[in-house]
Specification:
Layout (H helix, E strand, L loop, with lengths): L1 H7 L3 H9 L13 H14 L5 H14 L7 H10 L28 E10 L5 E9 L5 E8 L5 H16 L8 E5 L3 H4 L1 H9 L2 E5 L9 H13 L9 H18 L10 H11 L1
Parallel strand pairs: 1-4, 4-5
Antiparallel strand pairs: 1-2, 2-3
Helix pairs in contact: 3-4, 3-5, 4-5, 6-8
């Protein structure tokens, strides 16, 4: 038995207890305060049914800090959610491998803005299409436009660009050149749009054909908006959905935790940057 115990790296007494069936089974670890956290977690999961345990932990800790309480470790949140069957089910689908050697995330805000479009269908058949601008560093949706049963036009894109510059700089021109990354849609590649973008201090850049990962920041937002908002809300018609779209984007900017922002929302991250500047 000594040779077997040495090979397994366990004590002889432990091995003897296992063989005799006298070893006590390990109990699941829990803390007395878990019961107090469970109702908070259940409420957050009910409000955000598409969030995994890490985002739920970020929202929970936001609440706890606001109440002057100690934050909870994300592993503890995972354990509580697992014991209460609150974890998301795995999809079972393998992600396709994508090779991308470019630099997507920027080192500070207002170096690169990314833009893309999305669409979804309402229950009555109305098709809502939207375009947006997102900062590649702080992930805030700076401006957006939406249309019903039509395509995003060059005029829509130009209005969106002007609104973004005015929001960020309170003027009609950026103080330094900002890259404007988008796909090769006609609304972005139109001559009038490119000229107008340069007048605003933006430098139009376009992703290579069949390379959506080159605009990964925008692709990630499209996935988030559809998963966390579109799929879990009623979509009776465009008249109802358009006001909701504004609410969803504001909620994303104010509340959605990002792993790349240390589980802070875009505006929390911006405020933290401003305070340390």
């Amino acid at each position: 038995m000594k040779a077997v115990a040495d090979t397994l790296g366990v004590s002889r007494s432990n091995l003897h207890e296992r063989l005799n069936g006298s070893a006590k089974p390990r109990r699941s670890y829990h803390k007395a305060q878990d019961a107090a956290l469970l109702p908070r977690i259940q409420r957050l999961v009910a409000a955000r049914p598409t969030y995994g345990y890490r985002r739920i932990a970020a929202l929970l800790n936001r609440e706890l800090r606001a109440a002057g309480l100690a934050p909870a470790n994300h592993k503890r949140v995972y354990r509580i959610m697992k014991n209460s069957n609150l974890l998301l089910e795995r999809s079972g689908m393998e992600r396709p491998e994508r090779t991308h050697d470019g630099k997507v995330i920027m080192i500070r805000s207002n170096l690169r803005w990314c833009s893309d479009g999305l669409e979804f269908t309402c229950w009555n058949g109305d098709i809502v299409r939207a375009a947006f601008l997102i900062d590649a560093h702080d992930r805030e949706i700076i401006a957006w436009r939406a249309v019903v049963n039509a395509g995003i036009s060059g005029s829509d894109v130009r209005d969106m660009l002007l609104e973004a510059v005015e929001k960020r700089f309170c003027t009609h021109s950026a103080p330094e050149v900002i890259e404007l990354l988008s796909d090769n849609g006609s609304a972005y590649t139109a001559k009038d749009t490119r000229i107008f973008a340069r007048q605003l201090g933006l430098k139009p850049c376009f992703t290579p054909v069949k390379s959506p990962q080159s605009n990964g920041i925008s692709e990630a937002f499209v996935k988030t908006l559809k998963r966390d908002y579109v799929r879990v809300n009623p979509l009776p018609d465009a008249e109802t959905v358009l006001p909701l779209l504004d609410t969803w984007i504001e909620d994303y900017n104010d509340n959605h935790p990002h792993s790349g922002l240390k589980w802070r929302s875009p505006r929390e991250f911006i405020r933290a940057q401003t305070e340390t500047a």
